[in-house]
Write a structure and sequence with these properties.
Number of domains: 1
Number of helices: 16
Radius of gyration: 20 Å
Distance between the termini: 23 Å
Strand content: under 5%
CATH class: Mainly Alpha
CATH topology: Growth Hormone, Chain: A
Number of strands: 0
Largest sheet: none
Order of helices and strands: HHHHHHHHHHHHHHHH
Amino acid sequence: MSEHPSPRPDASGAAPTQAPPPTTGRRGLGRLIPLLGAGNLAVYAFYLGIGAVLLPLQVQGLTPGDEEAAVANLGVVAGIAAVFGTVFNPVGGALSDRTRTRWGRRNPWLLGGALAAFVLVFVLGYADSLLMMVIGWCLAQGAMNLHHAALTAIIPDRVPHDRRGTAAAAMGIAVSVAGVLGTGLAALFTARLPLGYIVLGGIVVAAAVLLTATTHDPRGAELPERGGATGGSPPAALGRFLSALAHRDFALVFAGRALLFLGYFLIFGFQLYILDYFIALPEGLEPAAAVTVLTLVTAAGTVLTTAAGGPLSDRLDRRKLFALVSGVVSALAMLIPFFTPTWTGMLVFAVVNGSAFGCFMAVDTALATLVLPSDADAARDMGVLNVAAAGPQIIAPFIASAIILHLGGYGSLFLVGSAVGLLGALAIVFVRGVR
């Protein structure tokens, strides 16, 4: 089994906290990596199924026939709820870093977050007002991000550096499959929205139980010691969670991820409405079903590129190059529907953008674990990096709805998304500590 390389120097030249030896052997990795994929599959099926299908339909049902009201209301619900996701992810990570129980430090948050999210979306499914939807989705986002922060931290916790591209690829493939699973399941329950919420929440709970019951969560002497800088009360620890942004490479990876995700969510959050109001669909194809078709096409390309990109980045030790190229291609792909606003154009966009963005997510996760300032605070700092994915969800709905209603419509949405994503990809060029 490979050992960790020497501690990675930070931007100031100081060595960060030494990582403990990986606690998972190669045989254990053969079980852990697929289960990480399954966990990520459940998380993103939850997010994508609800965010792309169930939530827009539920919002649309509040003001049937009123496109402007539906667009504005969806922006409010999704944007406000994303605030909770953004805050709870690093907070949950910091708390799990400090957790010491006989069940481990990640397991309580994996299970607790999943169960809480299930209960909350069960209630959300019966919400009959905009206020109830905002409250329900906010709390559900918060609970899911407590769960997701602990799940993401498992890679730096248990996976050796030379297998992180492979582990990240498994999680990236899961995201693409999750799109098919999540939107496909959600499309089955368009007439029974509460049941759709229950099914998607139940999948998260099942994956959490499987992961925690069949893999070993380090505890006690297996955990890295926390230095004096990370001591103190939990509120004091939470107050320091942004300190990782003082490290140059960490900050650049954060900025690149944030901009790429912002460009992506400008489009994704309004995909149902794009297909309903902007793209002329083939006769007989409903918008909700069209979302599932696009997701399936996207997944086919994503699985191939991600499965190859992650392990190849391990073999070549070139995470930055893979992230840069895939990020640029993903951003440029958004120009396809701008110039060709047809169903065929959307299908081509789905293949190119999905393949590139999926590969970027897989390699970027491995890249992110290699710029962490301290392994002892891995979940906290991965949570901060996850803000770069969750944070854009706060502003993307508001920006997107403003563009749609006042700044050129759905076509301009693709143009802005491409420009923002390209800036994010280019930020990776300046990362120095990782090849």
